[in-house]
Design goal:
Its cofactor is [4Fe-4S] cluster. It comes from Prunus mume. Pathway: Cofactor biosynthesis; molybdopterin biosynthesis. This is GTP 3',8-cyclase. By secondary structure, the protein is an alpha/beta fold. It is about 25% helix and about 15% strand. It has a twelve-stranded mixed beta sheet with strand order 7-8-9-6-5-4-3-2-1-10-11-12. Strand 11 and strand 12 (about 350) form a beta hairpin. It is globular and about 55 Å long. It starts with 18 loop residues before the first helix and ends in an 18-residue tail after the last helix. The relative contact order is 0.20.
Length: about 400
Amino acid sequence: MMKRHVFKFARSRMGFADFNCFLVDFETGSCSTSRNSDSKGLLSHQMNASAPRMCSTSCAKVPEDLPKDNPVSDMLLDSFGRLHTYLRISLTERCNLRCQYCMPAEGVDLTPSPKILSQNEIVRLANLFVSSGVDKIRLTGGEPTIRKDIEDICLHLSNLNGLKTLAITTNGITLARKLPKLKECGLTSVNISLDTLVPAKFEFMTRRKGHQKVMESINAAIDLGYNPVKVNCVVMRGFNDDEICDFVELTRDKPINIRFIEFMPFDGNVWNVKKLVPYSEMLDRVVKRFPDLKRLQDHPTDTAKNFRVDEHAGAVSFITSMTEHFCAGCNRLRLLADGNFKVCLFGPSEFNCLNSNMPKNLEAIRSSLWGRSYTCPLDFYQQCNVVM
């Protein structure tokens, strides 16, 4: 009989609805270069690893009272000298899929709509961060494209002086028809989640139809000139690990960046260590099929290890959330859909940014960053109660 693995995390306010975006851009992990395929041995190794490793198309109007200068501020600097220039904003807790690793079939309790950030609140808070040094914003959820005013939000944000990148992470179900307008409104980068190339497996995993719509969204993004179009794939043993090389084939003729993500534990998704396919194993499989795979130069703040197969138009990346830490270079901040601010996804510390007292907000942000850990404050295996 299979033994259950139970993880008890500190309070997180994420809820299941945020888990998909959590998976595709997770910021913490643990260090290992072991190629041991024994999952139980890998977990044991990780539990003993405690040391960090360095490693105008809209009727919307931009508010006139927003300041336009953006001097670099120490508000976004932590005690380790990391400047946090990347803000993720959750536009909604709702989602139009029910992915099995994300939420139960019946859904979850959501924050009441009146308590979700309004468009004006999103723009004002984003401006606070951009005017202090943030130059990249990613829109997440839930599923951000189901928010009715997403085009206006993009237009407002893209007009913030100092913002260089406005990105979105989406499941792609409704993206194809909305993307032309979103691009006109200033959206500069697209990440689309897709865990399988087999329609039947897609329906099994998401409990919804829509595989063809996701593929149409990927092609629509390519046709509109997005380069690369990032495709996020959570790899799970026994479900889609046999498709790894098929995903790599997508990079042959199209500017697609396939991003393989190690399966992550989270309270409620019945995580099983046997489903984890380590980065080293994924890499071995790709190299056997594509021996010309070559390492690319990563940016210090990258969460992914980047590669390219010779003569391929696209690239291949691995997000090693479970087996190799990348907390040391983390520059991400999170604004949740209810207005709560977090400096780390798994950190218990958070506060609500909707306080009208702006100096108080600024001081709270400074204090949160200054108290941030060098590695994940939960340290997965040391502060999680793991029942083997």
